[in-house]
Amino acid sequence: MSGRGRSYRYVGPVELKVVVRPGDGGRRIGSAADFGGWIVEQSAAELAEPFTFVVGMDGVLRLAPRRSEHVACAGGDTVLSAGEISFVREADRWTVSEVSNQSTGYCPDVSSWAEVARALDAVELQRPSGFTHEVVFRRCPDCQEHNIVREDDFVCVFCGSDLPAAWNVDPTV
């Protein structure tokens, strides 16, 4: 861990991680200038959809097209958060219109918002006060499957067992 929040290892399908090569990864966005250079390269069609994002262990935002895998955006590395993010132009500046922790490869806890907020603040982007769509991930202690908890129903969709209240997706943490 980096002295920041909890870190998240990739827990998704192995076949997606093995194709990630050194130098792969989303565009590193460490400043307002980085974001300004990146956003002008995006087409109207790309801007109409959310982008894949991760916050690396260095606390820096990385962005990739929506259909990119989070593990590829992260270059195969451990992250502080991951999800999807959308931007909208308001007056003369870009703002974050939507942001979620939806990443079935990393399954970050909703508490990872603090890392996302820090990364967005470093880039000087206006942002919401939290994830606009929170995804609650849990690993079933009985069948070990990863679940998305919906409507506070902490029951495994695979085997019917109760799911824990606290985040537990990565068994090595």
Write the layout of secondary structure elements.
Blueprint lengths: L13 H4 L9 E3 L2 H8 L4 H4 L3 E6 L4 E4 L5 H4 L5 E12 L2 E8 L12 H10 L13 E4 L6 E4 L24
Antiparallel strand pairs: 1-3, 2-3, 2-4, 4-5, 6-7
Provide the spatial order of strands within the biggest beta sheet. Answer: 1-3-2-4-5
Distance between the termini: 10 Å
Number of strands: 7
Q: Determine the number of helices (DSSP H or I, runs of at least 4 residues).
A: 5
The main β sheet shows up as: 5 strands, antiparallel
Name the assembly state.
single chain
- Estimate what percentage of residues fall within beta strands: 15-25%
Helix content: 10-25%
List low-confidence stretches: none
What is the mean predicted local confidence, pLDDT?
A: 94
Q: Which structural class do the helices and strands define?
A: alpha+beta
Could you say which overall geometry the principal axes of the C-alpha atoms support?
A: globular
Radius of gyration: 16 Å
SSE ordering:
HEHHEEHEEHEE
Which features characterize this protein?
173 residues; alpha+beta; five-stranded antiparallel sheet; two-stranded antiparallel sheet; 5 helices; 7 strands; 24% strand; globular
Question: Can you walk through the features of this model?
Answer:
This protein is α+β, with helices and mostly antiparallel strands and 173 residues long. It contains five helices and seven strands, in the order αβααββαββαββ. Strands 1-3-2-4-5 form a five-stranded antiparallel β-sheet. Strands 6-7 form a two-stranded antiparallel ribbon. Strand 2 and strand 3 form a beta hairpin. The longest helix has 10 residues, at 113-122. It is globular, with a radius of gyration of 16 Å. The model has no long low-confidence stretch (mean pLDDT 94).
